[in-house]
Amino acid sequence: MAKVLILHGWTNRRQQGHWQRHLATALRQQGHIVAYPQFPNTDEPKLDEWQELLAAELDILGEIESGETIVIGHSLGCINWIQGAATGLIKTPVDRVLLVAPADPRMLGEVEGLNVELTNPAVASALHASTSSLTVLASDKDKWTPRGIKVTFGDPLGVEPVIIPGAGHLSLDDGFGYWPGVINWVNDASADLTEV
Q: Is the pLDDT score of 14 beyond 90?
């Protein structure tokens, strides 16, 4: 049994058909503990509010003594995690973090309270300190990372991104719904995340 925290992105209301909702349902059916909170003001996010809820959800999962702790974010949900790591909000490292289609912070100027500078080595250091295992996954054609995932995230964070070709922003609008690879990955860290 794992404890899984799913972090949605900007404007996401956890709608039917989205891979994160499929993931939450599948993992709950398998007996995992899954937190899939709705972050406030999703159309006009204030990152301070998102950080507050992130901290609360981590505290609650931390009260459950057994099981691996896994965090899976999408888009702004990834930035929420990175900012939490960089500011010291994440006090106890989790076992695994999967950042899916993280949005370039340069594209998120409308998000109030955003304060992530990926080129700052302290940010990469804090992010790696927040987890025993960090995975970044994206498409090679994502409008939210116009400079590319390797340049924007991989190089500054010191990770080799996993690429799913042609998957856009890995959103429902891009036709990205049920995703067996991510479900399998929760159960086995060596599973092929690119299985769609």
A: no
